[in-house]
């Protein structure tokens, strides 16, 4: 079975440090999503890309978060500088959107990066 | 503004009985609904979906019902098994306007007791 791969699985770092999370979407999927799961907010969408172009990043704090897709096999989410309130599990998901029908197949999720900012 | 709500944080059922998980939504533009299952330390796994043109979709032990007038959907698991114990997330999408971005509920922890 094809899977979304996220690295690292766990990250512990001190406040102020830069954090980079990586995601390898499923081959052939044209849409990549970044979600964050916290105890308080559940699963919230941070940003998503279609064919590597950013479509919406309104869920991200712009001053410290950035998301990119340098190529079709890699998506990155960076936090600089990191703060304790960024501690959460960050999920990447990928999916295939069929433009003509405006329909998509279900998104497939990676196992997440558990981030702890001390 | 919580557009997708799962009002029951937890549900406990006996093995072999029916599990019913509920979800309500407020956005009338939502036209595609999904259920995901999540085990600890893993990502959500797609379970079943339903388009707004249907009111029922069935896949093995899992059935999703959609009541558009009530803006309510439910997931039925029959019979429930201990391996079904997980957090279940309801999600919704407005395909035409949002191009597949999902809005999730808060999740319901299902425990199936042997």
What is the number of E strands of chain B? Answer: 11
Contiguous low-pLDDT stretches of chain B (5 residues minimum) are none
Let me know the largest β-sheet of chain A: 7 strands, mixed
> Mean pLDDT across all residues of chain B, rounded?
93
Number of helices of chain A: 0
Number of helices of chain B: 1
Describe the structure.
The complex is a heterodimer of chains A (118) and B (114). With 118 residues, chain A is mainly β. Helices cover 0% and strands 56% of the residues of chain A. In chain A, the strands form three sheets. In chain A, strands 2, 4, 5, 6, 9, 12 and 13 form a seven-stranded mixed sheet that branches. A four-stranded antiparallel sheet of chain A has the order 1-3-8-7, with no helix packed on it. In chain A, strand 5 (42-50) and strand 6 (53-56) form a beta hairpin. Chain A is globular, with a radius of gyration of 14 Å. The model of chain A has no long low-confidence stretch (mean pLDDT 91). Helix content of chain B is 4%, strand content 53%. Chain B is built from one helix and eleven strands, in the order βββββββββαββ. In chain B, strands 2, 4, 5, 9, 10 and 11 form a six-stranded mixed sheet that branches. Chain B has a five-stranded antiparallel sheet with strand order 1-3-8-7-6, with no helix packed on it. In chain B, strand 7 and strand 8 form a beta hairpin. The longest helix of chain B is centred in the last third of the chain and has 4 residues, at 95-98. Chain B starts with a strand and ends with a strand.
């Amino acid at each position: 079975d094809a899977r979304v791969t996220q690295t690292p699985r766990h990250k512990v770092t001190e406040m102020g440090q830069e954090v980079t999370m990586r995601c390898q979407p499923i081959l052939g999927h044209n849409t990549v999503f970044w979600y964050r799961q916290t105890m308080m907010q559940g699963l919230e969408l941070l940003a998503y890309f279609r064919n590597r172009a950013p479509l919406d990043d309104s869920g991200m704090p712009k001053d410290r978060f950035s998301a990119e897709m340098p190529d079709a096999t890699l998506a990155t989410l960076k936090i600089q500088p990191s703060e304790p309130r960024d501690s959460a599990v960050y999920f990447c998901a990928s999916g295939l959107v069929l433009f003509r029908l405006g329909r998509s197949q279900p998104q497939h999720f990676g196992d997440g990066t558990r981030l702890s900012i001390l | 503004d919580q557009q997708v709500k799962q009002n029951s944080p937890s549900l406990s059922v006996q093995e072999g009985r029916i599990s019913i998980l509920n979800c309500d939504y407020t956005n009338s533009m939502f036209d595609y609904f999904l259920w995901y299952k999540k085990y600890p330390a893993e990502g959500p796994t797609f379970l079943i979906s339903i388009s707004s043109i249907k009111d029922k979709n069935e896949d093995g032990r899992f059935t999703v019902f959609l009541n558009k007038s009530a803006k309510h959907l439910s997931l039925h698991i029959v019979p429930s098994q201990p391996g079904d114990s997980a957090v279940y997330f309801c999600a919704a999408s407005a395909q035409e306007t949002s191009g597949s971005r999902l809005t999730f509920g808060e999740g319901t922890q299902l425990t199936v007791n042997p």
